[in-house]
């Protein structure tokens, strides 16, 4: 489960407000969050994302990676 407090703190580091982030990245899309600092089982995410992609009609994927030290572990 996503810890929304941590997610909101991360958004502050993006220097965007919620409205701009939503309009640019989320409007009309679904959201999947991965945090290498809080979630260490990358293989689990690969498995889950594979299921989501193969079981649905995914037309495109947008990856947003924050420029903070803890996101450096994200491939």
Can you offer a commentary on this structure?
With 75 residues, the chain is an all-alpha fold. The protein has one domain. It has helices at 4-14, 18-26, 42-55. The relative contact order is 0.16. The model has no long low-confidence stretch (mean pLDDT 77).
Share in helix: 40-55%
Mean pLDDT: 77
In terms of per-residue confidence, which ranges show pLDDT below 50 for 5 or more consecutive residues?
none
Largest sheet: none
Q: How would you classify the quaternary structure?
A: single chain
Describe the global form: globular
| SS class | mainly alpha
Please outline the helices and strands.
Elements: H1 4-14, H2 18-26, H3 42-55
Provide key terms for this protein:
45% helix, mainly alpha
Summarize this, please?
45% of the residues lie in helices and 0% in strands.
């Amino acid at each position: 489960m996503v810890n929304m407090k941590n997610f909101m703190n991360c958004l502050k580091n993006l220097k965007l407000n919620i409205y701009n982030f939503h309009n640019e990245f989320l409007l009309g899309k679904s959201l999947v969050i991965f945090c290498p600092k809080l979630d260490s089982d990358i293989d689990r995410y690969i498995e889950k994302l594979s299921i989501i992609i193969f079981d649905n009609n995914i037309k495109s994927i947008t990856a947003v990676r924050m420029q903070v030290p803890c996101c450096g572990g994200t491939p």
